């Protein structure tokens, strides 16, 4: 009897494994995320905004057409020309009767090289814009290292929303002297997932202000048909895309973004394309990527040779070298700094959002990503990846030694030991 039970258990395990193997990666990731409480809707349009100029042109145009509310949640608003333009537009909308609420992170503001100072915030409030600071930096600063609000969300009239990797800063258009061009992306969502993003904003607004605000104007009930001149979703699946929002909140959904990435990589059958700026990675992610390459998945990773921070990229380069030796194709982007955070799996699904693949994003910060289960949007990102290869070199044993000096390679080894803190 004991042997029969063992045989039955073995057959059940085999059946489960065969069933999982037979399932497509997109159906697997949807089932996995639903098991974590993530909901999906099927009526969404996704417009990719693949550089800073496109993002700000499109978003500013939409804000200028707002009728009731504009809600903004950003890691930081840099005190530069693009923020001043945004504040000017928002101030005009307040005069027209539009309610404007904005959130920014205390550490995010303090840590950028052109922060909003008290006098700037006071002037903004005098325009009628409700702007609030999450987790202001205070002595002894220990709490400021963790639990930052790193999200980038804008919701207009509860009808359309923007999310992605860009804060509000002019270097997304102009670049910087240190890194040159600054590459990143956002997307505009029109569909039921606007409501999910609105819920995220309102919850954070309540956390910061203790105001529990409600209004029917906050919620999308039908297609937003009065916004004109915005970039269209030109794919065949416009307004029929399956989208879910994964929202990381400390102590509530700690592992959701890490869970998504690990499972997305483990689910892959054919291909993975990945761009992420701070490639320090957890042990689980490293193992998942290596296993994907080992089972024959074509894994393509893109990192930048330039960065806006010290040490963190050295850890990423160390990981890149290990992945190259494990059979992954690693492309080193040389034209500027790639701050983009995307993954495309099997040409079937992708994500666009705020989360990096470092310990801060995956273990500490408030983050949010849109998971898009759609071949057309995924193909758009795949094409973008292929175009970026033109400004990259393929990492090989030869190019690795030519690019990284012995001392730089040694620094990378030390940096990888600090990965849990980078």
Automatic annotation (TrEMBL):
Q: Which UniProt keywords apply?
A: Cell membrane, Membrane, Repeat, Signal, Transferase, Transmembrane, Transmembrane helix
Q: Which domain of life is it from?
A: Bacteria
Which SMART domains does the record associate with it? PLDc
- UniProt signal peptide: 1-22
Q: Which NCBIfam families does the UniProt entry name for this protein?
A: bac_cardiolipin
What is the protein name given in its UniProt record?
Cardiolipin synthase
> Can the keyword Nucleus be found in this entry's annotation?
no
Q: Where in the cell is it found?
A: Cell membrane
Q: What class of enzyme is it?
A: transferase
> InterPro entries attached here?
Cardiolipin_synthase (IPR022924), PLD-like_dom (IPR025202), PLipase_D/transphosphatidylase (IPR001736)
This entry's Enzyme Commission designation comes to 2.7.8.-
Q: Where is the PLD phosphodiesterase domain?
A: 145-172, 334-361
Q: What is the lineage of its organism?
A: Bacteria, Pseudomonadati, Bacteroidota, Bacteroidia, Bacteroidales
Q: Which PANTHER family match?
A: CARDIOLIPIN SYNTHASE, PHOSPHOLIPASE D
From which organism does this entry originate? Segatella bryantii (Prevotella bryantii)
């Amino acid at each position: 009897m004991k042997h029969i039970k063992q045989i039955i258990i073995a057959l059940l395990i085999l059946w489960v494994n065969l069933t999982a193997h037979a399932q497509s990666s997109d159906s697997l990731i949807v089932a996995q995320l639903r098991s974590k409480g993530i909901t999906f809707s099927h009526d969404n349009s996704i417009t990719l905004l693949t550089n800073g100029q496109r993002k700000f042109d499109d978003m500013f145009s939409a804000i200028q057409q707002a009728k009731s509310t504009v809600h903004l949640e950003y890691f930081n608003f840099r005190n530069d020309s693009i923020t001043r333009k945004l504040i000017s537009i928002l101030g005009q909308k307040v005069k027209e009767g539009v309610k404007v609420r904005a959130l920014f992170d205390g550490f995010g503001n303090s840590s950028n090289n052109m922060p909003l100072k008290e006098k700037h915030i006071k002037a903004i409030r005098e325009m009628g814009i409700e702007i609030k600071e999450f987790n202001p930096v205070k002595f002894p600063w220990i709490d400021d290292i963790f639990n930052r609000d790193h999200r980038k969300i804008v919701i207009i009239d509860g009808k359309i929303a923007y999310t992605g990797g860009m804060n509000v800063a002019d270097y997304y258009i102009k670049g910087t002297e240190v890194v040159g061009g600054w590459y990143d992306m956002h997307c505009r969502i029109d569909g039921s997932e606007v409501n999910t993003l609105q819920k995220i904003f309102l919850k954070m607004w309540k956390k910061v202000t203790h105001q529990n605000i409600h209004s029917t104007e906050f919620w999308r009930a039908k297609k937003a048909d009065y916004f004109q001149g915005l970039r269209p979703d030109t794919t065949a699946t416009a307004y029929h895309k399956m989208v879910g929002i994964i929202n990381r909140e400390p102590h509530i959904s700690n592992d959701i973004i890490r869970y998504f990435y690990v499972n997305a990589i483990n689910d892959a059958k054919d291909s993975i394309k990945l761009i992420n700026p701070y490639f320090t990675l957890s042990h689980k992610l490293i193992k998942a990527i290596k296993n994907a390459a080992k089972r024959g998945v074509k894994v393509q990773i893109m990192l930048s040779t330039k960065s806006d921070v010290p040490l963190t990229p050295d850890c990423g380069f160390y990981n890149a070298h290990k992945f190259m030796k494990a059979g992954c194709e690693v492309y080193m982007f040389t034209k500027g700094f790639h701050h983009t955070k995307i993954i495309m799996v099997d040409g079937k699904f992708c994500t666009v959002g705020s989360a990096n693949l470092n310990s801060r994003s995956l273990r500490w910060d408030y983050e949010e990503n849109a998971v898009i289960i759609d071949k057309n949007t995924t193909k758009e990102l795949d094409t973008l990846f292929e175009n970026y290869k033109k400004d990259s070199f393929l990492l090989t044993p030869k190019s690795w030694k030519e690019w990284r000096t012995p001392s730089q390679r040694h620094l990378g080894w030390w940096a990888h030991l600090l990965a849990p803190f980078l």
